Amino acid sequence: MSRETSEAPVVAPVLVDAEADVRPSAAGAAARRALLARPVVLLVGIVLASVNMRAALASVSPLVSEISEAYGLSAAASSLVTSVPVLFLGLGALVAPWLGRRFGAERVLFAALLLLGAGILVRVLPSSAALYCGGVLVGTAIALLNVLMPGLIKRDFPDRAASMTSVYTGSMIAGATVVAASSVPLERVLGGWQASLGFWSLLAAVAALAWLPQVLIARGRTGHELRAAGPAAAPVRSVWRSPLAWQVTLFMGLQSLWSYVLIAWMPTIFTDHGMSRSTAGVVFAFNNLIQVAGAFAVPLLAGRMRSQRPLIVLVTTLVAAGYAGLMVAPVQGAWLWSAVLGVGQGGAVGLALTLIVLRSGDAVTAARLSGMAQTVGYLLAAAGPLAAGALHQATGSWTPPILAVLGVCAAALAVGLLAARNRTV
């Protein structure tokens, strides 16, 4: 039976552990103690892996026009360069928890970093097919990092989960910011967009190298072989049948959609209105950087409120205002719209992740709702860049795509107000 009640849950850190339902063996416990005895190794690995979690996506946007010209791609086909990885963020989220339980988070994260580096290199091979195939690998690798990294932090730093999450999210956003600002200058220095994109495979390789000691130390960990024992529990109704779970999931998906439209097209919107490519890249990088403010502040506020409806109104209004600004005065107000959108985007994703925990009555439900929200959310978000590119191609203007996103903001507001009620699944 569904437990959609008005009782406020006890709020835990906004993290879901993919290995929450397994118990380490004696060898596994010893390996974990060995890992925790070397916190610097863990910290360096987490920071470098986190830096890679958005870099491969942010590196493409400032170079979309060059990539399109090189292969003669239409606007709709160009949007697939961003949409394909986002699609596999959702599909990869389906298998990430199973892989973490089966092989251990350390091994899977190491493999994900190798896969990410390989995907970046495949993406710059002289073929449009390779461009999209590389996107499949990149999206799958980032999905594994997305799902398993928070659980690893929760497992190994239970008493410092909030501060470690700040390190992890800050590193992720910092990576995206630096990469977005560097893409066009690297293109000029290295002699082409292929070299600029391919350069970031080195970042993935360095992160994998930093992660290798953890894999070696944890090689004896066999926690995936033992299921956690516990008292028999009543059958739990699937979250897929809960209206509240769907409301949380749809808010996650809609806010992801408006963010990935910006990731795909923000620099192009600026350059189509006369801004230089290098300036457009810097403004896009600024948008990534300013997201830190919303991502940190909004979850803290949400955890102190019985109903998060005021925050839903705040973040959707900021995003809608920023998009409206892009439609009315994209170049003249570029820095302002970038800042307004950044606060709204960061706040929205932080709020979406917080709602997963706030609307869950227990850890098991939180894990299931997280999987549902990430899978459906990213699959929905993947349609955003493609639809925006198709509308732009059909009309020759950015006004119709922006109007469509404003409709998405209205839908997110409506479903978000339902998701923000003080109830649990």
Question: What's this, in brief?
Answer:
The protein is mainly α and 425 residues long.
* Count of the separate structural domains: 2
Strand content: under 5%
State the CATH superfamily name of the largest domain.
MFS general substrate transporter like domains
Tell me the overall shape. globular
Q: Quote the distance from N terminus to C terminus.
A: 10 Å
The total strand number stands at 0
Portion of residues within helices = over 70%
Structural class: mainly alpha
Task: Classify the fold: give the CATH topology of the largest domain.
Answer: Growth Hormone, Chain: A
CATH class of the largest domain: Mainly Alpha
What is the oligomeric state here? single chain
Unreliable segments of 5+ consecutive residues: 1-16, 222-234
Main beta-sheet annotation: none
Question: Can you characterise this structure?
Answer:
The protein has 425 residues and is mainly alpha-helical. The chain has two domains: 12-229, Up-down Bundle (Growth Hormone, Chain: A); 238-425, Growth Hormone, Chain: A (Up-down Bundle). Helices cover 76% and strands 0% of the residues. The protein is built from 15 helices and no strands. It has helices at 26-36, 39-58, 64-71, 75-103, 105-123, 128-156, 161-190, 193-199, 201-217, 243-272, 277-302, 309-328, 334-358, 363-395, 399-419. α10 packs antiparallel against α11 (277-302), α10 packs antiparallel against α15 and α11 (277-302) packs parallel to α13. The N and C termini lie close together (10 Å). The model is unreliable at 1-16 and 222-234 (pLDDT under 50). One of its GO terms (cellular component) is plasma membrane. Residues 38-424 form the Major facilitator superfamily (MFS) profile domain.
